[in-house]
Amino acid sequence: MKENNPIRVLMVTPFPEVEDQVVGGVAGVAYYLCKHLAEISDIEVDVLVPDCECTKTEQRVISGIKVTYLPKIKQHPVARVLAPAAARVIGEFAEEGGYDLVHIQAAPEWSTHIKQPIITTIHGINEQDMLFRGGNALKRKLAWPLIRWSEQRKRATIDNLIVISPYVRSAIGKALKGRSWDIENPVREDFFNVVRKPEPNTIIFAGVVTSRKNVARLVQAMASVKKSIPDAKLRIAGSLSDKSYSDFCQAEVERLGLQDNVQFLGSLSVDEMQEQLRSSQIMALTSLQETAPLSIEEAMAAGMPVVSSNICGMPFMIEHGVTGALVDPMDIESIAAGLVTALQLDLPTAAALSATIARKRFRGVVVAEQTAAAYREILGISSTTADEPQNGKKAETGEAA
After folding, report:
1. What is the pLDDT of residues 193-241, one digit of tens each?
2. What Rg value do the Cα atoms of the chain yield, rounded?
3. What does DSSP assign to residue 199?
4. Superfamily assignment of 7-186+364-379 in CATH?
5. How far apart are CA 161 and CA 176, in angstroms?
6. DSSP secondary structure, 228-297, as one string
7. pTM value?
8. What's the CATH class of domain 189-360?
């Protein structure tokens, strides 16, 4: 391609089907990123969504972005992971569209038939996430070595990788052989505009109520918090679709006499979630496995201290005793102590620092500029904008430690 032509990018990713009705997940991250990439003068971006529930190929325009939805191809579940039939269709689509570069979100196996330069973003460590999915726990543990081998095999083929958290780099280890860029996930812009008016001693949890999110221990910790802060309140915002686990959590509220301290809100809209961030003092996410939780980024963007686990990607987001608290997610008393610590922080100071960090690291315009810079470097194109922000780290080459 000529240097003065725009870079035509095909983003292959999960993506929302309705405009402005997504909060988190890979679909949300891709949506926010594409909206800001489309604002950069030398970038043109289209979106391809494989494995949809539609019966035939559909095209829509979402926030001015052309999005193509591909129907799911019937395939054995194991084959779908190891050698998805969708990969060939993706490769043909990219070739016919004449794109300069393809950006794969979340699924490296989609890239096997693509001829153009590829950059991949890994959003989760699948072999770790699968330990907390449904089914037989023993079978999941026995399957872990095979899943780990399969995932590392796919990661070793990645030539260009966007690393959303240092946790990803450490988890992949020596399987990372290509170039990489440290670029975090973008937050929806209006989370930065939340005007805070917090009710004292209120805590918001945002996420699906599942064992991976460790909600039961968070509830149990409230019994200890109540002893020192009797009016402390925990609001749990998230789907109760895992009925057996959510029933257990609600039973723990009854058993511990926390009916006045713990409330289950169910799934919330974007506006409802922002209202909770406005009115709550702190956020808590004490999960057993997370890579780079968008809910923490959103809370920080709104100027909210966060209590999070001291494992996986979360310690790279929160500074203990400054922007929140880090806790041992397996220790109920550690969680309780962290909640009390965060509730007792100087709120204006912690809130201002959280918001400042979020603006530097998570704003969509910042993330999009960093991503565009990676595209240009891969294609050997110099920046077209003299005053382009230099927020991203320089690409790293060779094996990760």
Report:
1. 999 999 999 999 999 999 999 999 999 999 999 999 999 999 999 999 9
2. 22
3. P
4. Glycogen Phosphorylase B; (3.40.50.2000)
5. 8
6. H-TT-EEEEES---SHHHHHHHHHHHHHTT-TTTEEEEES--HHHHHHHHHH-SEEEE--SS-SS-HHHH
7. 0.89
8. alpha beta
